[in-house]
Known about the structure:
The protein is α/β, with parallel strands linked by helices.
Amino acid sequence: MNILDKIITRKKQEISDSKSKISLQRLKDSDFFERGTYSLKETLQSKSGIIAEFKRQSPSKGIINDIVSPLEVVSAYEQFGASGISILTDNDFFGGSFDDILNVRNHINIPILRKDFMIDEYQFYEAKSIGADVVLLIAACLSPQHVQEFTQLSHELGLEVLLEIHSEEELQHFNSDIDLVGINNRNLKDFKVDLQHSVILKNQLPKDILSVAESGIYNIEDFNYLKEKGFDGFLMGEYFMKHENPAQKFKEFISSVII
C-alpha cells in the first residue's frame, strides 16, 4: 500500500467518526457558514501568484516546523504579498487541524485553501464552516464523476475549486467548471519531483485556465523557470516552513523573484 492509499484509508475512518459527532446541520449553523468568500482566481492575477502554505510536517519529510500557532506566519505571508494561504487540515499525516484555519480566518483578508484529501460531501460543508474559500480536489484519489459532483457542490457553497493532477491520465478529470488546475510537481505515490513533467502537462491544458505549480519548488531558480513557462500560481510550503522564521524567508524570497 503506497502513502496515498494509507492516507485515504485513514481519511475514510476520520470522516465516519466526524459524522457521528457533528451533524451536517451543526456545520451549517457555524459562524462562518454564511460569510462571503474571497476569490483565489482574482488574487492570483492581482498579487504575487504565490499560495503560501502553513505546513508542520509531511509523510515523506516528517516534522518540518513545529510552530504551534499559524497566525504570525500567515499574517506575514499576507503582508508581504501572498495571493492566498494554504493550510493543511489533515492531522495524522500532516499535523494540521481545523483550528489552524479557524484561528486565522478573522485576521487575514486573502483566500484560504483548505488543503486536505476531499473524498466525501461532508468535508465540503466542513470547509465552508471553518472559513475556507477554496478546496483541493486531488485527481489521484477521485473519479472524474466525483470531481464534477464535488465541483458543483463547492460552487453551491460559494467555494472555488483547485483540481490537482499529476499525470496525463488525470487530464480527463478536468471539466469546464473547474476554477484552477494545480499540477503537482511531486508524485503522491512515491514523492519524486519532476518540474519538466509538470510543464509538459500544463501545455495540454486549455489556454484560458489558470494553472498552479504545486510542491517541489526548492529555490528561486525553480520559481522563475515555472513562471517563464506560463504558470499563474505557485503553491509553496516547505521552502518557507523549513526555516526557523518562515515569515522572514517569505519576505526575502518575494523580493528576489520575477513577479
